[in-house]
Amino acid sequence: MFETGDINLSLLEIKIKPEYEKLVPALQELEYAELRNSITKNGLYFPIIVNKEGVVLDGHHRYKACKELGIEPQTIQREFSNELEEKKFVIENCIQRRHLNDFQKAELGIPLQKINEELAKKQQGTRSDLTSSPNGEKVKPFHSNKETSNQIGISSRTFDRARLIMERAPEEIKEKVRNNELSISKVYKKLLQEKKREQRREELNKTQIKLPETIQLHNKDFRELQIQDNSISLIFTDPPYLREYLYLYDDLGKQAVRVLKEGGSLICYVGHYALDVIIPMITKHGLTYHWALVIQHGGGSPTVFGSKILNCYKFMLWFTKGKYEGEYVKDMIKSEFQGKELHKWAQSTVESDYYIKYMTMENEIVYDPFMGQGTFGVSAKKLNRQFIGSEIDPAHFETAQRLISS
Prior knowledge:
Layout: E1 2-7, H1 18-23, H2 29-42, E2 48-50, E3 56-58, H3 60-69, E4 75-79, H4 83-97, H5 102-124, H6 144-152, H7 156-168, H8 171-178, H9 184-207, E5 215-218, E6 232-237, H10 247-259, E7 260-270, H11 275-283, E8 288-296, E9 303-304, E10 309-310, E11 313-320, E12 332-334, H12 349-359, E13 365-368, H13 375-382, E14 386-390, H14 394-405
Parallel strand pairs: 2-4, 5-14, 6-7, 6-13, 8-12, 13-14
Antiparallel strand pairs: 1-4, 2-3, 7-11, 8-11, 9-10
Helix pairs in contact: 2-3, 4-5, 5-6, 5-7, 6-7, 7-9, 10-11, 12-13
């Protein structure tokens, strides 16, 4: 770049190139009014920079104000070796001269990065070794994303997040980020969550088992079921609490690690007394203990004989196969008493409605190996999930069939 000095161009001789004008972030109405008033009282503090054809390179808003006021502006002419260098100058001036937030800087960083890459290619020429110059001297490798983020004055992490917003967010959201009404971080997290859900849907379409019906109920021991490996998104179940049945949690953990998809979850009710026994019993098979969930009773408080305890909540333990990538969920739910006339151990649908809704998507498979009267199958069907249920007791199985099919 070289400067040819002050020149006297009339307003009619000055030109606006739409491509360059689009690169310049718009001023707020108040900001533009203040600029216009300043030019009226004091004239231009900074001359308008143009190229040899009179195209504005810096000072688009100043030129607009001068044109509206009928003031002939002072101009400086600059010339560049190529159009890429000229366009780079336009962008860098916007970044240096304006008080831009990180998102506005990132918006300018996108075209700047493309220019940097084009200039790097020109410098490379036909050379395959990018670590040395044509005369054999060692040169620093060009890292497009990192170099550009340094130029615009933001971190490469912020640059990447802003890029995702520019690619995926609707215009009204981008405008709110430009105006500091929403943060880059908040919008990025929301978009990333949506992106992961889309990826899960795509994966589901490719790999999901196509059941003949959305509901499969089995009147047999869960350990006898032939369930395909890596096919279940959520196991939501309520095994028997009594000490004589604790061994079933061992078998549950063994089956769960096989049938759950990567990132899938097992949520099971447990008796308070057995927490220290059940956790290692399940994790030894390869699942990871994730969290304890609390279900507050909606009815009376049962007594725990021998402990003088009025029990006001139930525990559920949450295990995962690999890393859980789903929605945030509450770790405490207030349940509702729905009666035990069909099954003395029946649970409410409040908690199953909530966790199935937020931890799975439509058409994914929910599995209950201790189905009882089919409460969790009712939730799965209502939420348009596929459901596999197993119940060994014939009477309870018939009840489940009636409830889920109604």
